[in-house]
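Hi team,

Filling in the usual template for the complex we talked about on Friday. All components are listed, including any nucleic acid strands or ligand strings, so the model treats them as one assembly.

SUBMITTER: L.P.
PURPOSE: interface mapping
COMPONENTS: two
RESIDUES: 623
SEQUENCES:
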Amino acid sequence: MTETLDTAAKLPTAPDPAPTGKGEKPAKGRSLWSDAWHDLRRNPLFVVSAVLIVLLLAMVAFPSLFTSASPNDADLANHYQGDPHYGHFFAPDWFGYDTQGRSVWARMVYGARASVTVGLLVTLSVTLCGGVVGMVAGYFGGWLDSVLSRITDMFQGIPFLLGSMVVLTTFTDRNVWVVSAALLFLGWTQIARVARGAVITVKQSDFVHAAKSLGASTMRIMFRHIVPNALAPVVVVATTALGGYIAAEATLSYLGIGLAAPAVSWGVDVDTGKDALRTAPHILISPAVMVSLTVLAFIMLGDAVRNALDPKSR
Amino acid sequence: MGRYVARRLLQMIPVFIGSTLLIFCMMYALPGDPVRALYGEKAPDPAQIAAIKHQLGLDLPLWHQYWNYLTGLFQGDFGTQIASQRPVFDVIEQAFPVTIRLTLFAFVFTVVAGILLGLVSGLRADKALDRIVLVFTLLLISVPSFVLGFLFQYLFAFQLGWVTPTVQNSRDLGQLLLPAIVLAALSLAYVTRLTRTSVAENLRADYIRTAIAKGLPRRRVVGVHLLRNSLIPVVTFLGTDIGSLMAGAVVTEGIFNVHGVGNAIFEALNRREGSTVVGIATLIVIVYLVASLLVDLLYAVLDPRIRYD
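RESULT (copied from the run log):
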Protein backbone atom coordinates (compact mmCIF):
# COMPACT_ATOMS: atom_id res chain seq x y z
CA MET A 1 0.00 0.00 0.00
CA THR A 2 3.00 2.27 -0.10
CA GLU A 3 1.86 3.83 -3.35
CA THR A 4 -0.90 5.62 -1.48
CA LEU A 5 1.56 7.05 1.01
CA ASP A 6 2.07 10.28 -0.79
CA THR A 7 -1.56 10.90 -1.46
CA ALA A 8 -2.71 10.05 2.02
CA ALA A 9 -0.18 12.33 3.62
CA LYS A 10 -1.21 15.55 5.21
CA LEU A 11 1.36 17.29 3.10
CA PRO A 12 -0.10 20.55 1.91
CA THR A 13 1.34 20.15 -1.55
CA ALA A 14 0.52 16.47 -1.98
CA PRO A 15 -2.49 15.90 -4.18
CA ASP A 16 -5.24 14.33 -2.14
CA PRO A 17 -7.13 11.50 -3.75
CA ALA A 18 -10.03 13.00 -5.62
CA PRO A 19 -13.45 11.74 -4.65
CA THR A 20 -14.04 10.42 -8.09
CA GLY A 21 -17.56 10.29 -9.25
CA LYS A 22 -19.09 10.62 -5.81
CA GLY A 23 -20.62 13.99 -6.45
CA GLU A 24 -21.99 12.97 -9.81
CA LYS A 25 -24.27 10.09 -9.08
CA PRO A 26 -27.25 10.51 -6.80
CA ALA A 27 -26.69 7.07 -5.25
CA LYS A 28 -27.83 6.81 -1.63
CA GLY A 29 -29.14 10.34 -1.93
CA ARG A 30 -26.16 12.09 -0.37
CA SER A 31 -23.39 13.78 -2.31
CA LEU A 32 -19.86 14.15 -1.05
CA TRP A 33 -20.63 17.68 0.02
CA SER A 34 -23.77 17.01 2.00
CA ASP A 35 -22.03 14.01 3.52
CA ALA A 36 -19.15 16.24 4.50
CA TRP A 37 -21.50 18.82 5.96
CA HIS A 38 -23.16 16.08 7.96
CA ASP A 39 -19.78 15.04 9.39
CA LEU A 40 -18.68 18.58 9.94
CA ARG A 41 -21.57 19.52 12.20
CA ARG A 42 -20.68 16.73 14.59
CA ASN A 43 -17.02 17.65 14.83
CA PRO A 44 -16.26 19.60 18.04
CA LEU A 45 -13.22 21.08 16.29
CA PHE A 46 -15.56 22.62 13.73
CA VAL A 47 -18.00 23.91 16.33
CA VAL A 48 -15.26 25.67 18.30
CA SER A 49 -13.69 27.17 15.18
CA ALA A 50 -17.10 28.23 13.85
CA VAL A 51 -17.90 30.10 17.07
CA LEU A 52 -14.51 31.83 16.98
CA ILE A 53 -14.88 32.73 13.32
CA VAL A 54 -18.40 34.09 13.79
CA LEU A 55 -17.12 36.29 16.63
CA LEU A 56 -14.27 37.46 14.43
CA LEU A 57 -16.54 38.24 11.52
CA ALA A 58 -18.76 40.22 13.89
CA MET A 59 -15.68 42.20 14.93
CA VAL A 60 -14.86 42.81 11.29
CA ALA A 61 -18.34 43.98 10.41
CA PHE A 62 -19.39 45.82 13.57
CA PRO A 63 -16.36 46.66 15.67
CA SER A 64 -18.31 49.27 17.62
CA LEU A 65 -20.44 46.48 19.10
CA PHE A 66 -17.42 45.31 21.04
CA THR A 67 -15.82 48.52 22.13
CA SER A 68 -16.80 52.13 22.55
CA ALA A 69 -13.23 53.36 22.23
CA SER A 70 -11.62 54.30 18.94
CA PRO A 71 -8.40 52.46 18.05
CA ASN A 72 -6.52 55.58 17.06
CA ASP A 73 -7.60 57.86 19.95
CA ALA A 74 -4.39 58.44 21.85
CA ASP A 75 -4.60 60.03 25.29
CA LEU A 76 -1.13 60.20 26.77
CA ALA A 77 -2.64 60.51 30.26
CA ASN A 78 -3.61 56.86 29.94
CA HIS A 79 -0.01 55.95 29.39
CA TYR A 80 0.67 56.10 33.13
CA GLN A 81 -2.25 53.95 34.15
CA GLY A 82 -1.87 51.56 31.28
CA ASP A 83 -2.19 48.28 33.13
CA PRO A 84 -5.00 45.97 32.10
CA HIS A 85 -8.12 45.69 34.26
CA TYR A 86 -9.28 42.22 33.48
CA GLY A 87 -12.48 42.78 35.45
CA HIS A 88 -13.66 45.66 33.22
CA PHE A 89 -15.27 43.65 30.47
CA PHE A 90 -15.45 45.43 27.12
CA ALA A 91 -14.30 48.69 28.73
CA PRO A 92 -11.54 50.60 26.93
CA ASP A 93 -9.08 49.68 29.69
CA TRP A 94 -9.98 45.98 29.66
CA PHE A 95 -6.56 45.13 28.25
CA GLY A 96 -4.92 48.36 29.32
CA TYR A 97 -3.45 51.11 27.18
CA ASP A 98 -0.38 51.11 25.00
CA THR A 99 2.56 53.50 25.35
CA GLN A 100 0.72 56.15 23.36
CA GLY A 101 -2.38 55.85 25.50
CA ARG A 102 -4.52 54.03 22.96
CA SER A 103 -6.94 51.40 24.14
CA VAL A 104 -5.39 47.99 23.53
CA TRP A 105 -8.82 46.35 23.47
CA ALA A 106 -10.08 48.72 20.81
CA ARG A 107 -7.02 47.96 18.71
CA MET A 108 -7.54 44.24 19.20
CA VAL A 109 -11.11 44.57 17.92
CA TYR A 110 -10.39 46.88 15.00
CA GLY A 111 -7.31 44.89 13.98
CA ALA A 112 -9.53 41.97 13.01
CA ARG A 113 -10.61 43.74 9.86
CA ALA A 114 -7.19 43.87 8.22
CA SER A 115 -6.30 40.31 9.17
CA VAL A 116 -9.53 38.69 8.06
CA THR A 117 -9.77 40.77 4.88
CA VAL A 118 -6.27 39.85 3.80
CA GLY A 119 -6.84 36.23 4.71
CA LEU A 120 -10.06 35.93 2.74
CA LEU A 121 -8.86 38.00 -0.23
CA VAL A 122 -5.68 35.98 -0.60
CA THR A 123 -7.44 32.65 -0.17
CA LEU A 124 -10.08 33.47 -2.76
CA SER A 125 -7.67 34.88 -5.31
CA VAL A 126 -5.13 32.13 -4.79
CA THR A 127 -7.79 29.46 -5.21
CA LEU A 128 -8.99 31.11 -8.38
CA CYS A 129 -5.57 31.71 -9.97
CA GLY A 130 -3.95 28.50 -8.75
CA GLY A 131 -7.07 26.55 -9.64
CA VAL A 132 -7.13 27.85 -13.20
CA VAL A 133 -3.41 27.23 -13.74
CA GLY A 134 -3.61 23.78 -12.18
CA MET A 135 -6.69 22.85 -14.18
CA VAL A 136 -5.28 23.99 -17.50
CA ALA A 137 -1.98 22.21 -16.81
CA GLY A 138 -3.65 19.03 -15.61
CA TYR A 139 -6.36 18.89 -18.24
CA PHE A 140 -4.43 19.70 -21.38
CA GLY A 141 -1.16 18.07 -20.35
CA GLY A 142 1.65 17.94 -22.89
CA TRP A 143 3.87 20.94 -23.47
CA LEU A 144 1.41 23.31 -21.81
CA ASP A 145 1.65 21.24 -18.64
CA SER A 146 5.45 21.25 -18.82
CA VAL A 147 5.62 25.00 -19.27
CA LEU A 148 3.10 25.76 -16.51
CA SER A 149 4.72 23.28 -14.14
CA ARG A 150 8.15 24.81 -14.71
CA ILE A 151 6.71 28.27 -14.04
CA THR A 152 5.13 26.92 -10.88
CA ASP A 153 8.52 25.49 -9.89
CA MET A 154 10.15 28.87 -10.41
CA PHE A 155 7.74 30.59 -8.06
CA GLN A 156 7.96 27.71 -5.63
CA GLY A 157 11.73 28.09 -5.51
CA ILE A 158 11.36 31.49 -3.88
CA PRO A 159 10.57 31.22 -0.18
CA PHE A 160 7.10 32.64 0.53
CA LEU A 161 8.07 35.07 3.25
CA LEU A 162 11.23 36.30 1.53
CA GLY A 163 9.50 36.78 -1.79
CA SER A 164 6.59 38.73 -0.37
CA MET A 165 9.04 40.90 1.58
CA VAL A 166 10.85 41.74 -1.62
CA VAL A 167 7.62 42.50 -3.46
CA LEU A 168 6.30 44.67 -0.66
CA THR A 169 9.39 46.81 -0.13
CA THR A 170 8.96 48.07 -3.66
CA PHE A 171 5.63 49.63 -2.73
CA THR A 172 5.55 52.80 -0.68
CA ASP A 173 1.80 52.99 -0.20
CA ARG A 174 0.85 49.64 1.22
CA ASN A 175 -2.76 48.83 1.98
CA VAL A 176 -4.77 45.66 2.35
CA TRP A 177 -4.95 45.23 -1.43
CA VAL A 178 -1.22 45.53 -2.00
CA VAL A 179 -0.40 43.11 0.81
CA SER A 180 -2.96 40.63 -0.54
CA ALA A 181 -1.58 40.97 -4.05
CA ALA A 182 1.95 40.28 -2.80
CA LEU A 183 0.80 37.15 -0.99
CA LEU A 184 -1.14 36.06 -4.07
CA PHE A 185 1.92 36.59 -6.26
CA LEU A 186 3.84 33.91 -4.37
CA GLY A 187 1.04 31.86 -2.87
CA TRP A 188 -0.79 30.49 -5.92
CA THR A 189 1.69 27.68 -6.59
CA GLN A 190 0.49 25.49 -3.74
CA ILE A 191 -3.08 25.40 -5.00
CA ALA A 192 -1.92 25.03 -8.60
CA ARG A 193 -0.05 21.85 -7.73
CA VAL A 194 -2.91 20.36 -5.78
CA ALA A 195 -5.44 21.30 -8.45
CA ARG A 196 -3.24 19.84 -11.18
CA GLY A 197 -2.94 16.55 -9.33
CA ALA A 198 -6.66 16.39 -8.64
CA VAL A 199 -7.58 17.20 -12.25
CA ILE A 200 -5.22 14.53 -13.59
CA THR A 201 -6.86 11.95 -11.33
CA VAL A 202 -10.39 12.97 -12.32
CA LYS A 203 -9.50 13.23 -16.00
CA GLN A 204 -8.96 9.49 -16.18
CA SER A 205 -12.35 8.54 -14.78
CA ASP A 206 -14.97 6.84 -16.88
CA PHE A 207 -17.52 9.62 -16.71
CA VAL A 208 -15.06 12.04 -18.29
CA HIS A 209 -14.35 9.58 -21.10
CA ALA A 210 -18.08 9.08 -21.48
CA ALA A 211 -18.74 12.81 -21.70
CA LYS A 212 -15.95 13.15 -24.23
CA SER A 213 -17.28 10.38 -26.45
CA LEU A 214 -20.74 11.90 -26.27
CA GLY A 215 -19.20 14.98 -27.83
CA ALA A 216 -19.27 17.35 -24.87
CA SER A 217 -17.26 20.49 -25.38
CA THR A 218 -14.01 21.08 -23.49
CA MET A 219 -15.66 23.82 -21.45
CA ARG A 220 -18.54 21.57 -20.50
CA ILE A 221 -16.26 18.71 -19.49
CA MET A 222 -14.12 21.07 -17.43
CA PHE A 223 -16.84 22.89 -15.56
CA ARG A 224 -19.57 20.26 -15.36
CA HIS A 225 -17.49 17.17 -14.80
CA ILE A 226 -14.00 17.96 -13.66
CA VAL A 227 -14.32 21.02 -11.43
CA PRO A 228 -16.98 19.59 -9.09
CA ASN A 229 -14.99 16.41 -8.64
CA ALA A 230 -11.57 17.96 -8.27
CA LEU A 231 -12.76 20.67 -5.89
CA ALA A 232 -12.48 18.78 -2.60
CA PRO A 233 -8.68 18.64 -2.25
CA VAL A 234 -8.42 22.26 -3.37
CA VAL A 235 -10.94 23.36 -0.75
CA VAL A 236 -9.05 21.46 1.94
CA VAL A 237 -5.72 23.07 1.09
CA ALA A 238 -7.26 26.52 0.69
CA THR A 239 -9.00 26.40 4.07
CA THR A 240 -5.85 25.29 5.82
CA ALA A 241 -3.81 27.94 4.02
CA LEU A 242 -6.17 30.72 5.12
CA GLY A 243 -4.74 30.65 8.64
CA GLY A 244 -1.26 30.78 7.17
CA TYR A 245 -2.07 33.88 5.12
CA ILE A 246 -3.37 35.65 8.22
CA ALA A 247 -0.16 34.76 10.02
CA ALA A 248 1.82 35.99 7.00
CA GLU A 249 0.02 39.36 7.01
CA ALA A 250 0.73 39.76 10.71
CA THR A 251 4.37 38.79 10.22
CA LEU A 252 4.87 41.25 7.35
CA SER A 253 3.16 44.05 9.26
CA TYR A 254 5.30 43.23 12.28
CA LEU A 255 8.42 43.48 10.10
CA GLY A 256 7.26 46.92 9.01
CA ILE A 257 6.73 45.98 5.38
CA GLY A 258 3.09 45.03 5.53
CA LEU A 259 0.38 47.41 6.63
CA ALA A 260 1.62 50.65 8.15
CA ALA A 261 0.75 53.06 10.92
CA PRO A 262 -2.73 54.53 10.41
CA ALA A 263 -4.02 51.08 9.50
CA VAL A 264 -4.82 49.04 12.59
CA SER A 265 -3.12 45.67 12.36
CA TRP A 266 -2.15 43.20 15.05
CA GLY A 267 1.25 42.78 13.47
CA VAL A 268 1.95 46.51 13.75
CA ASP A 269 0.82 46.42 17.39
CA VAL A 270 3.18 43.59 18.21
CA ASP A 271 5.96 45.64 16.65
CA THR A 272 5.13 48.74 18.75
CA GLY A 273 4.72 46.60 21.84
CA LYS A 274 8.09 44.93 21.61
CA ASP A 275 9.98 47.89 23.04
CA ALA A 276 7.91 47.79 26.22
CA LEU A 277 7.96 44.00 26.53
CA ARG A 278 9.86 44.07 29.81
CA THR A 279 7.74 46.69 31.57
CA ALA A 280 4.32 46.44 29.91
CA PRO A 281 4.03 43.01 28.29
CA HIS A 282 0.26 43.34 27.80
CA ILE A 283 0.80 45.73 24.88
CA LEU A 284 2.53 42.99 22.92
CA ILE A 285 0.81 39.92 24.28
CA SER A 286 -2.80 41.06 23.74
CA PRO A 287 -2.61 41.53 19.95
CA ALA A 288 -0.34 38.47 19.77
CA VAL A 289 -3.04 36.38 21.39
CA MET A 290 -5.57 37.76 18.90
CA VAL A 291 -3.41 36.74 15.93
CA SER A 292 -2.86 33.30 17.37
CA LEU A 293 -6.55 32.79 18.15
CA THR A 294 -7.53 33.86 14.65
CA VAL A 295 -5.00 31.59 13.00
CA LEU A 296 -6.04 28.81 15.36
CA ALA A 297 -9.69 29.21 14.40
CA PHE A 298 -8.95 28.90 10.69
CA ILE A 299 -6.45 26.06 11.11
CA MET A 300 -9.05 24.14 13.12
CA LEU A 301 -11.61 24.85 10.41
CA GLY A 302 -9.15 23.51 7.86
CA ASP A 303 -8.57 20.37 9.92
CA ALA A 304 -12.29 19.81 10.30
CA VAL A 305 -12.94 20.33 6.60
CA ARG A 306 -10.14 17.94 5.75
CA ASN A 307 -11.56 15.27 8.03
CA ALA A 308 -14.99 15.71 6.52
CA LEU A 309 -13.90 15.74 2.87
CA ASP A 310 -11.12 13.21 3.03
CA PRO A 311 -12.25 10.39 5.30
CA LYS A 312 -9.07 8.46 4.53
CA SER A 313 -6.87 10.78 6.54
CA ARG A 314 -8.81 10.12 9.73
CA MET B 1 21.49 6.83 -11.02
CA GLY B 2 24.17 9.04 -12.53
CA ARG B 3 21.99 9.73 -15.53
CA TYR B 4 19.07 10.57 -13.30
CA VAL B 5 21.13 13.07 -11.32
CA ALA B 6 22.38 14.60 -14.55
CA ARG B 7 18.83 14.95 -15.85
CA ARG B 8 17.64 16.50 -12.62
CA LEU B 9 20.56 18.94 -12.64
CA LEU B 10 19.63 19.95 -16.17
CA GLN B 11 16.01 20.45 -15.12
CA MET B 12 17.19 22.67 -12.29
CA ILE B 13 18.76 25.18 -14.64
CA PRO B 14 15.55 26.76 -15.96
CA VAL B 15 14.03 26.80 -12.48
CA PHE B 16 17.15 28.43 -11.07
CA ILE B 17 17.25 31.01 -13.84
CA GLY B 18 13.52 31.66 -13.53
CA SER B 19 13.52 32.09 -9.76
CA THR B 20 16.54 34.35 -9.68
CA LEU B 21 15.26 36.35 -12.63
CA LEU B 22 11.98 36.87 -10.78
CA ILE B 23 13.75 38.22 -7.71
CA PHE B 24 16.06 40.23 -9.93
CA CYS B 25 13.13 41.82 -11.73
CA MET B 26 11.32 42.60 -8.49
CA MET B 27 14.41 44.28 -7.11
CA TYR B 28 15.39 46.27 -10.17
CA ALA B 29 12.36 46.89 -12.32
CA LEU B 30 10.07 48.21 -9.62
CA PRO B 31 10.26 51.72 -8.11
CA GLY B 32 12.99 52.71 -5.66
CA ASP B 33 16.34 53.96 -6.91
CA PRO B 34 19.45 52.87 -4.97
CA VAL B 35 21.68 55.47 -6.59
CA ARG B 36 19.21 58.24 -5.81
CA ALA B 37 19.10 56.90 -2.24
CA LEU B 38 22.85 57.54 -1.89
CA TYR B 39 22.09 61.24 -1.74
CA GLY B 40 19.58 60.96 1.08
CA GLU B 41 17.66 64.20 1.43
CA LYS B 42 19.98 66.20 -0.81
CA ALA B 43 18.97 67.00 -4.36
CA PRO B 44 21.39 65.11 -6.58
CA ASP B 45 22.99 66.25 -9.78
CA PRO B 46 21.36 64.28 -12.64
CA ALA B 47 24.63 64.06 -14.54
CA GLN B 48 26.36 62.59 -11.51
CA ILE B 49 23.59 60.04 -11.07
CA ALA B 50 23.83 59.07 -14.71
CA ALA B 51 27.59 58.67 -14.39
CA ILE B 52 27.29 56.43 -11.34
CA LYS B 53 24.61 54.38 -13.01
CA HIS B 54 26.73 53.95 -16.09
CA GLN B 55 29.69 52.90 -14.01
CA LEU B 56 27.62 50.28 -12.18
CA GLY B 57 25.96 49.11 -15.38
CA LEU B 58 22.55 50.15 -14.07
CA ASP B 59 21.72 52.02 -17.28
CA LEU B 60 21.76 48.81 -19.29
CA PRO B 61 18.51 47.10 -20.20
CA LEU B 62 17.22 44.68 -17.60
CA TRP B 63 18.09 41.52 -19.50
CA HIS B 64 21.65 42.74 -19.96
CA GLN B 65 21.97 43.54 -16.28
CA TYR B 66 20.68 40.07 -15.45
CA TRP B 67 23.11 38.50 -17.91
CA ASN B 68 25.97 40.39 -16.30
CA TYR B 69 24.80 39.19 -12.93
CA LEU B 70 24.57 35.56 -14.02
CA THR B 71 27.99 35.52 -15.64
CA GLY B 72 29.41 37.17 -12.53
CA LEU B 73 27.74 34.55 -10.40
CA PHE B 74 29.54 31.73 -12.16
CA GLN B 75 32.82 33.43 -11.36
CA GLY B 76 31.85 33.59 -7.70
CA ASP B 77 30.95 37.27 -7.89
CA PHE B 78 27.69 38.05 -6.14
CA GLY B 79 27.79 41.74 -7.04
CA THR B 80 28.71 44.77 -4.98
CA GLN B 81 26.76 46.79 -2.48
CA ILE B 82 26.10 50.18 -3.99
CA ALA B 83 26.29 52.27 -0.85
CA SER B 84 29.33 50.75 0.83
CA GLN B 85 31.19 49.36 -2.21
CA ARG B 86 31.43 46.13 -0.25
CA PRO B 87 31.26 42.90 -2.25
CA VAL B 88 28.05 41.03 -1.48
CA PHE B 89 30.12 37.88 -1.13
CA ASP B 90 31.71 39.47 1.94
CA VAL B 91 28.33 39.96 3.55
CA ILE B 92 27.33 36.41 2.69
CA GLU B 93 30.60 35.00 3.96
CA GLN B 94 30.05 36.68 7.28
CA ALA B 95 26.35 36.03 7.73
CA PHE B 96 25.84 32.67 6.07
CA PRO B 97 27.69 30.42 8.53
CA VAL B 98 25.59 31.85 11.36
CA THR B 99 22.33 31.18 9.57
CA ILE B 100 23.47 27.74 8.43
CA ARG B 101 24.19 26.90 12.04
CA LEU B 102 20.83 28.26 13.17
CA THR B 103 18.97 26.51 10.37
CA LEU B 104 20.74 23.19 10.90
CA PHE B 105 20.06 23.43 14.61
CA ALA B 106 16.39 24.06 13.92
CA PHE B 107 16.37 21.33 11.27
CA VAL B 108 17.85 18.68 13.54
CA PHE B 109 15.42 19.68 16.26
CA THR B 110 12.53 19.44 13.79
CA VAL B 111 13.59 16.03 12.54
CA VAL B 112 14.32 14.44 15.89
CA ALA B 113 11.45 15.87 17.92
CA GLY B 114 8.95 15.85 15.07
CA ILE B 115 9.48 12.24 14.02
CA LEU B 116 9.59 11.07 17.63
CA LEU B 117 6.37 12.86 18.56
CA GLY B 118 4.69 11.76 15.36
CA LEU B 119 5.73 8.16 15.85
CA VAL B 120 4.55 8.10 19.46
CA SER B 121 1.17 9.58 18.62
CA GLY B 122 0.76 7.61 15.41
CA LEU B 123 1.32 4.34 17.24
CA ARG B 124 -1.39 5.28 19.71
CA ALA B 125 -3.77 6.92 17.26
CA ASP B 126 -6.90 8.34 18.92
CA LYS B 127 -5.65 7.68 22.44
CA ALA B 128 -5.17 10.42 25.05
CA LEU B 129 -1.50 10.98 24.24
CA ASP B 130 -2.29 11.31 20.55
CA ARG B 131 -4.91 13.95 21.33
CA ILE B 132 -2.45 15.90 23.45
CA VAL B 133 0.16 15.85 20.70
CA LEU B 134 -2.48 16.92 18.19
CA VAL B 135 -3.52 19.91 20.31
CA PHE B 136 0.15 20.75 20.82
CA THR B 137 0.81 20.81 17.07
CA LEU B 138 -2.36 22.85 16.54
CA LEU B 139 -1.04 25.45 18.96
CA LEU B 140 2.41 25.47 17.34
CA ILE B 141 0.90 26.05 13.91
CA SER B 142 -1.38 28.80 15.19
CA VAL B 143 1.19 30.89 16.98
CA PRO B 144 3.19 32.81 14.34
CA SER B 145 6.92 32.59 14.91
CA PHE B 146 7.32 36.25 15.76
CA VAL B 147 4.73 35.87 18.52
CA LEU B 148 6.40 32.71 19.80
CA GLY B 149 9.77 34.46 19.74
CA PHE B 150 8.55 37.31 21.92
CA LEU B 151 6.67 34.98 24.25
CA PHE B 152 9.84 32.94 24.77
CA GLN B 153 11.89 36.08 25.20
CA TYR B 154 9.45 37.38 27.79
CA LEU B 155 9.20 34.07 29.63
CA PHE B 156 12.76 32.77 29.56
CA ALA B 157 14.69 36.03 29.59
CA PHE B 158 12.58 38.57 31.45
CA GLN B 159 10.59 36.38 33.83
CA LEU B 160 12.83 33.41 34.50
CA GLY B 161 16.17 34.98 33.65
CA TRP B 162 17.55 31.75 32.19
CA VAL B 163 18.93 33.35 29.05
CA THR B 164 19.87 36.79 27.84
CA PRO B 165 17.04 38.45 25.88
CA THR B 166 19.13 38.60 22.73
CA VAL B 167 21.98 36.52 21.44
CA GLN B 168 25.32 38.05 22.44
CA ASN B 169 27.56 35.88 20.32
CA SER B 170 26.01 34.56 17.12
CA ARG B 171 28.60 31.83 16.84
CA ASP B 172 27.80 30.29 20.22
CA LEU B 173 25.60 27.23 19.72
CA GLY B 174 24.19 27.33 23.24
CA GLN B 175 22.85 30.81 22.75
CA LEU B 176 21.27 29.81 19.45
CA LEU B 177 19.13 27.19 21.20
CA LEU B 178 16.15 29.45 21.84
CA PRO B 179 16.07 31.06 18.37
CA ALA B 180 16.45 27.62 16.82
CA ILE B 181 13.46 26.27 18.73
CA VAL B 182 11.37 29.26 17.69
CA LEU B 183 12.46 28.84 14.08
CA ALA B 184 11.72 25.13 14.16
CA ALA B 185 8.29 25.36 15.80
CA LEU B 186 6.13 25.47 12.69
CA SER B 187 8.06 22.79 10.81
CA LEU B 188 8.09 20.67 13.94
CA ALA B 189 4.31 20.74 14.03
CA TYR B 190 4.02 19.79 10.35
CA VAL B 191 6.56 16.97 10.64
CA THR B 192 4.77 15.62 13.69
CA ARG B 193 1.44 15.63 11.91
CA LEU B 194 2.83 14.11 8.73
CA THR B 195 4.61 11.34 10.61
CA ARG B 196 1.54 10.65 12.71
CA THR B 197 -0.80 10.28 9.74
CA SER B 198 1.69 8.22 7.82
CA VAL B 199 2.49 5.91 10.74
CA ALA B 200 -1.17 5.47 11.70
CA GLU B 201 -2.02 4.57 8.11
CA ASN B 202 0.88 2.20 7.54
CA LEU B 203 0.17 0.44 10.80
CA ARG B 204 -2.81 -1.13 9.04
CA ALA B 205 -0.77 -2.18 6.01
CA ASP B 206 -0.36 -5.83 5.07
CA TYR B 207 3.40 -5.85 5.31
CA ILE B 208 3.22 -4.75 8.94
CA ARG B 209 0.82 -7.58 9.73
CA THR B 210 3.22 -9.95 7.97
CA ALA B 211 6.14 -8.61 9.94
CA ILE B 212 4.30 -9.05 13.22
CA ALA B 213 3.08 -12.51 12.18
CA LYS B 214 6.64 -13.54 11.38
CA GLY B 215 7.35 -12.89 15.03
CA LEU B 216 9.79 -10.06 14.49
CA PRO B 217 10.59 -8.07 17.61
CA ARG B 218 8.43 -4.97 17.95
CA ARG B 219 11.47 -2.74 17.78
CA ARG B 220 12.32 -4.07 14.35
CA VAL B 221 8.75 -3.84 13.09
CA VAL B 222 8.44 -0.22 14.16
CA GLY B 223 11.98 0.92 13.52
CA VAL B 224 12.60 -0.72 10.16
CA HIS B 225 9.36 -1.76 8.53
CA LEU B 226 7.02 0.95 9.74
CA LEU B 227 9.21 3.99 10.15
CA ARG B 228 11.16 3.62 6.95
CA ASN B 229 8.03 3.49 4.84
CA SER B 230 6.31 6.22 6.80
CA LEU B 231 9.14 8.66 6.33
CA ILE B 232 8.68 9.26 2.60
CA PRO B 233 6.14 12.12 2.90
CA VAL B 234 8.11 13.53 5.82
CA VAL B 235 11.29 13.60 3.77
CA THR B 236 9.43 15.34 0.95
CA PHE B 237 8.30 18.02 3.33
CA LEU B 238 11.71 18.44 4.94
CA GLY B 239 13.39 18.91 1.58
CA THR B 240 11.19 21.82 0.61
CA ASP B 241 11.27 23.20 4.12
CA ILE B 242 14.97 24.04 4.36
CA GLY B 243 14.53 27.07 2.11
CA SER B 244 11.63 28.40 4.14
CA LEU B 245 13.56 27.81 7.35
CA MET B 246 16.36 30.01 6.03
CA ALA B 247 13.88 32.66 4.97
CA GLY B 248 12.03 32.36 8.26
CA ALA B 249 15.29 33.30 9.94
CA VAL B 250 14.48 36.90 8.99
CA VAL B 251 11.96 37.00 11.82
CA THR B 252 13.83 34.91 14.36
CA GLU B 253 17.16 36.61 13.79
CA GLY B 254 15.50 39.99 14.13
CA ILE B 255 13.94 39.17 17.49
CA PHE B 256 17.03 37.59 18.99
CA ASN B 257 19.52 39.84 17.23
CA VAL B 258 21.41 37.04 15.52
CA HIS B 259 23.77 38.42 12.89
CA GLY B 260 22.85 36.07 10.10
CA VAL B 261 21.48 36.14 6.60
CA GLY B 262 17.99 37.06 7.79
CA ASN B 263 19.21 40.19 9.50
CA ALA B 264 21.38 41.09 6.53
CA ILE B 265 18.54 40.69 4.07
CA PHE B 266 16.16 42.70 6.23
CA GLU B 267 18.61 45.57 6.55
CA ALA B 268 19.32 45.41 2.84
CA LEU B 269 15.62 45.54 2.04
CA ASN B 270 15.16 48.61 4.19
CA ARG B 271 18.04 50.31 2.42
CA ARG B 272 16.79 49.16 -1.01
CA GLU B 273 20.13 47.43 -1.37
CA GLY B 274 19.11 45.24 -4.28
CA SER B 275 22.35 43.41 -4.91
CA THR B 276 22.50 42.02 -1.37
CA VAL B 277 18.90 40.86 -1.48
CA VAL B 278 19.33 39.21 -4.85
CA GLY B 279 22.61 37.60 -3.77
CA ILE B 280 21.21 36.06 -0.62
CA ALA B 281 17.96 35.06 -2.29
CA THR B 282 19.97 33.34 -5.04
CA LEU B 283 21.82 31.34 -2.42
CA ILE B 284 18.57 30.34 -0.72
CA VAL B 285 17.15 29.23 -4.07
CA ILE B 286 20.27 27.11 -4.65
CA VAL B 287 19.89 25.54 -1.20
CA TYR B 288 16.25 24.81 -1.96
CA LEU B 289 17.03 23.19 -5.32
CA VAL B 290 19.85 21.05 -3.94
CA ALA B 291 17.68 19.97 -1.02
CA SER B 292 14.87 18.87 -3.32
CA LEU B 293 17.35 16.89 -5.42
CA LEU B 294 18.67 15.18 -2.29
CA VAL B 295 15.11 14.35 -1.29
CA ASP B 296 14.48 12.62 -4.60
CA LEU B 297 17.63 10.57 -4.16
CA LEU B 298 16.64 9.72 -0.59
CA TYR B 299 13.40 8.15 -1.83
CA ALA B 300 15.43 5.32 -3.32
CA VAL B 301 17.15 4.73 -0.01
CA LEU B 302 13.84 4.65 1.87
CA ASP B 303 11.93 2.60 -0.68
CA PRO B 304 14.11 0.16 -2.59
CA ARG B 305 11.37 -0.33 -5.17
CA ILE B 306 12.04 3.17 -6.45
CA ARG B 307 14.92 3.06 -8.88
CA TYR B 308 16.39 5.77 -11.03
CA ASP B 309 17.59 4.35 -14.29
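MY TAKE: Chain A touches chain B through 58 residues (CB under 8 Å). The radius of gyration of chain A is 23 Å.

Thanks, L.
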